[in-house]
Write a structure and sequence with these properties.
The chain is α/β, with parallel strands linked by helices and 308 residues long. It is 39% helix and 14% strand. The protein has one domain: Glycoside hydrolase/deacetylase (TIM Barrel), CATH 3.20.20. Helix 2 packs parallel to helix 9. Bound molecules: zinc ion.
């Protein structure tokens, strides 16, 4: 622990591994590979090889995780996703073809949500508790549709780092319009109305795609950041801040079979899981369990230290 950080007491540190199983759908909807059989083959590898590798590690380490699975992944890799459910992991929705919600009409987004819920019900026999927007984009209709479909929680936004809250609908902001008098757009951000849906924050700094996946289109992404650097300087550093300076909160890690299902990533993921296990009061939980715990007592994840 850093020398001058004193901790008064230790609260609950709940660590949730979220696996966004983008696979072929990721290439169709977000990574610009929809016309490239070679890129799509990388999605096939993620589904056919990445998913089983990660499942094997979670079983060995006895960790239960939360999977956000596009409908396309469920229908393409049915056996693999059934194996995920059979191993006791949580399944939540994540679009169909990883389409960008901000490009959809309300009707399209609604229909995709409905179909995605049904696909998961077909595997687990139950409605999914969690929604995670594909590409972590919210359309203007997303909050209202998530509420309408009665999700317990959403996990797509980044308003806080380590503490859940309640998802709002109807937030408003003014975009700059250089053609108009600034008085028409000089307005602060306006918070909307709180819903009953728990919002569990995620972070691009605890996500493996931006630094570690090579993407050709629509924007070239090199994807060769050092995996050990990412684990040490982002994942563990963020965990250490939460543990040592806040003493309570939720840590969500977002990984993909497309990246963490690769041979060079499995040992690092294993190391991270063991690192967390080495900390008293830190426990692995699903996001559903975290949402229910927060609903029961929101104060449980408030900082016990001086840092938010
Ligand atoms: Zn995704």
């Amino acid at each position: 622990m850093p020398g001058n950080v004193l901790r008064i007491r230790m609260g609950d540190i709940d660590v949730a591994i979220g696996v966004d199983a983008d696979c072929v759908a990721g290439w169709l909807g977000s990574y610009g590979g929809e016309d490239s059989p070679a890129d799509l083959s990388r999605g096939l590898s993620a589904g056919n090889e990445g998913i089983p590798r990660m499942l094997e590690l979670f079983e060995t380490e006895d960790v239960t995780t939360s999977w956000y699975v596009p409908g396309h992944t469920i229908e393409t890799f049915r056996d693999e996703i059934e194996a995920v459910a059979d191993a006791g992991h949580e399944l939540g929705i994540h679009g169909y073809s990883h389409e960008n919600p901000t490009d959809l009409t309300r009707e399209q987004e609604d229909a995709i949500m409905e179909a995605s819920i049904d696909l998961i019900k077909d595997i687990t026999g139950e409605r999914p508790a969690g929604h995670r927007a594909s590409w972590w984009e919210f359309s203007e209709n997303t909050p209202e549709l998530v509420e309408k479909h009665d999700f317990l929680y959403d996990s797509s936004l980044m308003e806080r780092e380590f503490e859940p809250g309640y998802m709002r609908k109807g937030d408003r902001w003014e975009k700059i319009d250089y053609e108009r008098d600034p008085d028409t757009w000089m307005e602060p951000y306006r918070y909307g109305e709180e819903t009953d849906v728990v919002e569990i924050p995620i972070s691009w700094y605890r996500d493996d795609i931006p630094p570690m996946m090579f993407i050709k289109h629509p924007h070239y992404n090199m994807g060769y950041a050092s995996p050990r650097m990412i684990h040490e300087e982002l994942y563990k550093a963020q965990f250490d801040f939460l543990y040592n300076r806040r003493g309570a909160g939720v840590y969500t890690l977002t990984i993909h079979p497309d990246v963490h299902g690769k041979p060079h990533m499995i040992p690092l993921l294993e190391e991270f899981i063991q690192y967390v296990k080495g900390h008293e009061n830190a426990e692995f939980k699903t996001l559903e369990a975290i949402a229910r715990k927060y609903e029961d007592d929101p104060s449980v994840y408030e900082s016990d230290g001086e840092y938010v």
